[in-house]
Sequence to fold (177 residues):
Amino acid sequence: MSNSESLSQPSSEFATAPQAGLWRRLAALFYDWLILIALWMLAMALGLGVVALLNSAGLISFAGYADPAAYIAAHKIWFQLYSLALFIGFYLYFWCKGGQTLGMRSWRILLVQQNGKPITLKQAAIRASTALLGLGNLWLLIRWGKDLALQDQLSKTQVIVLTKQQSSALNLYRNAR
Fold:
């Protein structure tokens, strides 16, 4: 049985695994944000290049603007939506592909449904929209001992801590397509 097949089956070991605490979640979130900052810088450079190409092709004009940055600032809603799509896309891709972002993998935590199965795209979307940029994790402090963040409760998911052996056995990204 391959790793992806074993993850697609309900796993009692995942359903009963210990929940990840606040500090481990925040550490993984910090790692993810470092990656997202780099991706965002690349995406903004790509966006600036597209705007420059559109100007060169005559589809848009920088006339009336001091420079391309002024043009972008005047039309910032599109770049904000572009950024939001990048951030949400990052989490949806990794959560649905293998249950872990790169930061979660570093801290050996895994996102699964409360019965241990992999999450669905719908659950990932609910989770991303209710996480409040990570502030939903503070719900762990309000509901001390329950070990479910706001986004966990609303999306019917859980973040579990993997043992070193489980983490090595999953090795999700080596087998990912």
Notes: Confidence is low (pLDDT under 50) at residues 1-10. The CA atoms of residues 5 and 170 lie 10 Å apart. Residues 3-175 form one domain. The first strand starts at residue 109 and ends at 113.
